[in-house]
Amino acid sequence: MLEFKPLFVADTALLRSYYEHCPFRFCEYTAGIKLMWTSLRPAYAEAAGCLLVRFELDGETFFDYPVAGAEGDEDAALTALEQHWIEQGIAPIFSVIPSEKLPHLLRRYPYARVSAPRLWQDYLYHAEDMQSFAGRRYSGQRNHINNFTRRYPTAHFRPLTAEDEDKLAIFWREFEEQFAKGDSKSAVKELRLAEEFFNAHYADGHFLAGCMELDGRMISVALGERCGETVIVHIEKAMQEFEGIYPTMVREFARTFGGDALWFNREDDAANRGLRMSKLQYLPAEMGEKYHVELENELHHLREIPTLQTERLTLRPFTDADKPAYNAICLDDERNRWWGYDYRTDLGDAPLTEDYFLSVTREDFRRHLAVNFAICLGERCIGEAVLYRFDHRGGAELGCRIVKSEAGSGYGTEAFTAVKNWALYKLGLRKVVAKCYHENTASFRMLSSCMRKTGEDETFSYFETTV
Questions:
Q1: Residue 2: how many CB atoms within 10 A of its CB?
Q2: Is 281:246 a contact under the CB 8 Å cutoff?
Q3: Could you tell me which residues come within 8 angstroms of residue 70 by beta carbon, excluding any fewer than 6 positions away?
Q4: Which of 37, 115, 214, 388 has its CA 20 to 30 A from that of 157?
Q5: How far apart are CA 221 and CA 109, in angstroms?
Q6: Count of Cβ atoms closer than 10 Å to residue 342 Cβ
Q7: Could you read off the pLDDT of 135-153 as tens digits, one per residue?
Q8: CB atoms within 10 A of CB 33
Q9: 238: buried, middle or exposed (CB in 10 Å: 19+, 13-18, 0-12)?
Q10: Collapsing DSSP states into helix, strand and coil, what is residue 223?
Q11: What does the mean pLDDT of the chain come to?
Q12: Do the first three CATH levels of 122-267 and 298-466 match, i.e. the same topology?
């Protein structure tokens, strides 16, 4: 089972071990973004040689696409993620998916909603363009750089070192004084995040950091990191009193740290009109389109729970009239020792109410997590069949329980088979799985009669039916 751990500065080396070879070209697949935007509560896990990252926004949980290490297995990592979603009851959402990985996700998951917000797009430039600004189309940038060079012939760009702490403190103080005039609260917040991150990491060896200096005074700073064939530029700040400082810094940063990189990513425009105009003036070769993928399952298309009829039984949605019988089923600890679930775990310290169990079934159906059928003999509820643990790949697990007074009459097999067949041939699943404790001989006989055994472990025997 995956264990997601909060990301801290101490995890920088681990993040870089994955991201330094990552080919995705997006700013989100960098150590810098993960460590800078702590408000998103980033957390990580490792599985099958891959880095898995989870974050939270507006009460929802999102996941990056797995980033494979040298011998990483993306499909195995996705399988581990699927198990995590099932165990945690999470609605799986992938965010910022690269275009090259979208087809694989859509082949793997038959039901998904896809969007590509314009505001998320990164500005991608050919590295050689940023290093030279060659050709007529970049004449404006070259003119600004030439004017800057004529006015400030002693200005130069250099990498930053740990000895620059005092000069850097002076730069941020001066920059904040000019920045604070009329800027929005969000812009001020972004500046604080940038400053804190820059000061913490500019000299730690994991990032690329440099400055323009004029007669001993620091007049601009920039910080980025190399990921695969792309240099992602996280921070660019300059004193605007020096006309031409920004294109000069962009070019010199690219020349100093570009090496054999093919791309420079100057990130998105944060929905800021000024930033958008500025980034467009540098003539991006591509706008990095990021896909937002919300996975769904077969229940998404089921508006209401149907009624199924067998030779002796009716399987239907639970009603308020079933509440006493259903509560008795759920509270029968002796019978439910084989159910594999203890309601007390989810209930926690909250009081157990008369409506608790029925409300949980309805909420699970509303969230497309499960379908609970009341198993009825005539009008009397004698058990429950639950289709749950949807894997978003066409599979789900089926469980069934019958009250003690009706055990041994074959009702469990009859109800289980009816729901299994409905799930496969009406709902559209490709596979239904089930399990039972080794000690539960009655369930073992029932499952063996209508499914194929696929294996066992120390606790359970496993069965499935596929179509």
A1: 17
A2: no
A3: 21, 49
A4: 37
A5: 44
A6: 11
A7: 999 999 999 999 999 999 9
A8: 22
A9: buried
A10: strand
A11: 94
A12: yes
Does the domain at residues 122-267 carry the CATH identifier 3.40.1410.10? no
CATH node for 5-119: 3.40.630.30
Give the pLDDT of residue 190: 79
DSSP-derived pairing of the beta strands 263-265 and 230-238: parallel
The CB-side HSE value for 349 (13 A sphere, CA atoms) comes to 0
Closest listed residue to residue 293, CA positions, set 120, 95, 6: 95
Mean pLDDT of 110-130: 95
User: Tokens at residue 68, please?
Assistant: 């494979």
Question: What's the confidence (pLDDT) of residue 180?
Answer: 59
Contact between 108 and 65 under an 8 Å Cβ cutoff? The reply is no
Decide if 438 contacts 461 (C-beta within 8 A).
Answer: yes
* Cα–Cα nearest to 77, from 105, 35, 111: 105
CB 195 within 8 A of CB 254: no
CA–CA distances in Å: residue 209 to residues 49, 74, 222, 295, 320 = 30, 32, 6, 39, 65
- Residues 193 and 36 sit within 8 Å (Cβ to Cβ): yes
Domain residue limits, the chain: 5-119, 122-267, 298-466
Average pLDDT over residues 379-407: 95
439, two tokens: 């000690």
The pair of three-digit structure tokens given for residue 353, joined into one six-digit string: 């109410």
Pick the closest to residue 299 from 211, 426, 177 (CA basis): 426
Out of 128-137, 180-189, 219-228, 236-245, which region has the weakest mean confidence (pLDDT)? Answer: 180-189
DSSP 207: S
Contact 364, 387 (CB under 8 A): no
Q: Kindly write down the DSSP assignment for every residue of 96-128, as one continuous string.
A: EE-TTTHHHHHHH-SSEEEE--GGG-EEEEEHH
Q: Which fold has domain 298-466?
A: Aminopeptidase (3.40.630)
pLDDT tens string 276-287:
999 999 999 999
- The alpha-helical segments, DSSP class H, found in 134-269 are 139-151, 165-179, 185-201, 245-257
